[in-house]
């Protein structure tokens, strides 16, 4: 019987370790194919490097980053627009009225 494949899809780097690191490590240890997709952060950023090291420790393969910018972390994807932001306008939030 072939080993099951595991695909973990998360919003941010670190989510894979916090939410399913044990599952990824256990499956990888049995020889199952594992993969992690992270929606935010782009290749070449410090968080991409952290994610690669975490997946290496878990035995979970090479990270795949979709490269979207985090809503509150524009440096997560340099040169990409931040979701929910319009040029010249700030988002509303606690203590910040929406224009």
How do the strands and helices of this protein lay out in sequence?
Layout: E1 6-10, H1 15-29, E2 34-40, H2 46-58, E3 63-68
Parallel strand pairs: 1-2, 2-3
Structure description:
This protein is α/β, with parallel strands linked by helices and 99 residues long. It is built from 2 helices and 3 strands. Helix content is 28%, strand content 18%. A 3-stranded parallel beta sheet has the order 1-2-3, with helices on one face. 21% of the residues are buried.
Quick summary of this structure?
The chain has 99 residues and is an alpha/beta fold. The chain has a 3-stranded parallel sheet with strand order 1-2-3, with helices on one face.
Question: Key terms for this structure?
Answer:
99 residues, alpha/beta
Structural class of the secondary structure composition? alpha/beta
Main sheet specs: 3 strands, parallel
Radius of gyration from the alpha-carbon trace, in angstroms: 17 Å
Helix content: 25-40%
Give the beta-strand count.
3
In the sheet with the most strands, the strands line up as 1-2-3
How many helices in DSSP terms?
Answer: 2
Shape: elongated
Give helix and strand order, one letter per element, not per position: EHEHE
Strand content: 15-25%
């Amino acid at each position: 019987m072939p080993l099951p494949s595991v695909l973990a899809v998360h919003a941010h780097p670190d989510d894979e370790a916090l939410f399913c690191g044990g599952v990824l490590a256990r499956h990888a240890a049995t020889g199952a194919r594992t993969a992690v997709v992270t929606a935010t952060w782009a290749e070449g950023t410090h968080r991409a490097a952290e994610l690669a090291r975490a997946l290496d420790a878990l035995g979970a393969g090479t990270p795949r980053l979709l490269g979207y910018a985090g809503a509150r972390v524009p440096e997560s994807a340099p040169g990409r627009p931040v979701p929910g932001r319009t040029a010249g306008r700030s988002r509303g939030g606690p203590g910040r009225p929406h224009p």
